[in-house]
Amino acid sequence: MSKLNDLITELCPNGVEYKPLSDMFIQLRGMSGAKNKWAESGNCQFIDYMNVYKKIVVDVDDLPYATVLNMNQTVLKKGDILFTAASETADECALAAEIEDDICDGIFLDDHLFGLRQIDGKEFFVRGYLKYAFRSVYFRTIVNKVVRGVTRHYISKTDFMNLVVPVPPLEVQREIVHILDEFTLLSAELSAELSAELKARKKQYEYYQDTLLKFDDKIPQVTLKDIATDIYRGSGIKRDEVTEEGIPCVRYGEIYTTYNTWFKDCISHTKEEYVSSPKYFEHGDILFAITGESVEDIAKSVAYLGNDKCMAGGDIVVLKHNQNPRYLAHVLSTTYSRQQKSKGKVKSKVVHSNVPSIESITIPLPSLEVQERYANVLDNFETICNDLSIGLPAEIEARQKRYEFYRDQLLTFAETGSSILTDRQTDRQTEPD
Question: Do 163 and 24 reside in the same domain of the chain?
Fold first, then answer.
């Protein structure tokens, strides 16, 4: 940091110049006239929204294909800065990523993205600088001022090009990129280590779960159809129909992302008038998500142990029964059950299951007394694993916050006329723990 402060003191002690983006860049439009998008072959490849949204460096090694009639469109090249044009929240608009790959011939930009390329012959920003800058607090603040929309947010390309941004000296930019590259690499290595530890803990839990629930031939094997008192699909609840108050509900995606083996409280609510044919679940019911992104995870199940009458969203199957719900939740999470759930499913962008497939799943079914004992043992073991699972992601999140803190500090500049170094020292916030 001392080298950066020395550069600032030497090169821009009284602040930096601010310029509109339109004075420094030409704007790149997304491809038009595309057919057969997301294909395995075509006459071009394209960079999609998630490739920019999730990463600051675009991976061009495994992009989808499309077929376009007009190949005389802007082809991307190394150093181009790409942006998300629209998203569900304002903070997700104009997130930036950069192409760092030399080989990107024949690669187009999808139509819900746009890009910037520096005006030929001029270098206002060094490579790597803007991919960090446009994710910092300062740049997010100026971007959010021109974001429009209510349920769907977007940014006008004209408004975006009129944004006025700080342009520090190139030597200062290079040092900032060097610092953030090093910090990014260190954070990635530490996060990888913690993630590996978390994965190992989960595998250990799965091993003991599989071992405990592998019964001998004396325990009867039954299908879920045999024990179901009722089984039915939920009714669709759209994202914009989720409310802060109302009747508790579960949407199928939450089964994958939010709930583990069992839960008592719903994170979402809706209003009954939003759903034409509402379907409900109650204490003890098992919920299956019958749409997913992978064969391995399809039909993930969870038990509801709360006391409210709740609404089941679309692509959820509700199983009613007279067994121990915690036991069923554990046994349906074993490798044996997951293999049955995925049997016959074809890997594609979206994987589906259905009621007949769920009904055909076979499980060992001991007496209710034995079910209770096994559920208690596995609940205790899961609690131990979850304590570690909570601690490790929390540590990963803490490291990410620390990275974001330093990034924001590095990318805050005063306009010409005030001391950058003084402003940095005065405005510096407390480093996160």
Answer: yes
